[in-house]
UniProtKB/TrEMBL annotation:
InterPro entries: KsgA/Erm, rRNA_Ade_diMease-like_C, rRNA_Ade_methylase_Trfase_N, rRNA_adenine_dimethylase, SAM-dependent_MTases_sf. Its EC number is 2.1.1.182. It is found in: Cytoplasm. S-adenosyl-L-methionine binds at residues 12, 14, 39, 60, 104. One of its GO terms (molecular function) is RNA binding. It comes from the Bacteria. This is Ribosomal RNA small subunit methyltransferase A. Keywords: Cytoplasm, Methyltransferase, RNA-binding, rRNA processing, S-adenosyl-L-methionine, Transferase. It comes from Lutibacter profundi. PANTHER family: DIMETHYLADENOSINE TRANSFERASE, DIMETHYLADENOSINE TRANSFERASE-RELATED. GO terms for cellular component: cytosol.
Length: 258
């Protein structure tokens, strides 16, 4: 019995045991005892996670995959969640426990998985997963690059990001049309921002929505004082600002509004 990959779920099953083991090994196990794997499919990654010292849970939306896992991983049965990760409340399943996230993520929802992780950062100390290479690079990219953007800044504000390795299409069934990339996010010790988080998100998103313009023009919509807009930072374009500079900018805007 095997599970057929479903296009509407963005499934590409990993078939390379060595890569599955490398992804499982990318979790450090520091600061948590529970791990949640998103989209385990037929369990090629799950198998290696179950050999670790932490307790592995899986969440899967595909009922056929769930039946397969129940039949082949008997010791996992009580820890299989049939649900959509994007819609669950982590507290309902894990209480106040810290839980790491891992997976070979469906490309069509991978950025949403990152945003959901950021929403639950207080509970997710580590995150390791496989994305379309282009998305993985974007999350890990530093300022000064054309692909540095909203996803890069918001993720790096709360997590240290490492691009670990690239994976070719040939190790999947069916093979995707592009390379994949595996990254690891490790939550920063000081992940609580010294500024209003909602305002920080708004500043970053507004700035990058017109990324070719200087901040003086792209942030016009925020009704900043003329005095503040004379600050030299407003002559820059958003991709020139580091994460820390975006935090400093938010702080200036916060004070300007008082």
């Amino acid at each position: 019995m095997s599970v057929k990959a479903k296009k509407h779920l963005g499934q590409h099953f990993l078939k390379d045991e060595l890569i599955a083991q490398q992804i499982a090994d990318s979790l450090t196990g520091k600061g948590y005892e529970k791990v949640l794997e998103i989209g385990p499919g037929m369990g090629v990654l799950t198998k290696y996670l179950l050999q670790k010292k932490f307790t592995t849970h899986v969440i899967e939306i595909d009922t056929e995959s769930v039946e397969y896992l129940k039949a082949h991983y008997l010791n996992l049965t009580n820890r299989i969640i049939l649900n959509n990760f994007l819609k669950i409340n982590l507290f309902e399943y894990f209480g106040n426990n810290q839980v790491a996230i891992i997976g070979n993520f469906p490309y069509n929802i991978s950025t949403q998985i990152v945003f959901k992780t950021l929403e639950n950062k207080h509970q997710i100390p580590e995150f390791s997963g496989m994305f379309q290479k282009e998305v993985a690079k974007r999350i890990a990219e530093k300022e000064g690059s054309k692909v540095y953007g909203i996803l890069s800044v918001l993720t790096q504000a709360f997590y240290n990001v490492e691009y670990l390795f690239t994976v070719p299409p040939t190790v999947f069934n069916p093979p995707p049309k592009v390379d994949s990339g595996v990254i690891r996010l490790t939550r920063k010790e000081n992940y609580i921002l010294p500024v209003n988080e909602k305002l920080f998100y708004r500043v970053v998103k507004t700035a990058f929505q017109q990324r070719r313009k200087t901040l003086r023009n792209s942030l016009k919509i925020m009704n900043l004082s003329n005095n503040l807009r004379e600050d030299s930072i407003f002559a820059k374009r958003p991709e020139q600002l580091s994460v820390q500079e975006f935090i400093n900018l938010t702080s200036k805007i916060e004070k300007d509004a008082v």
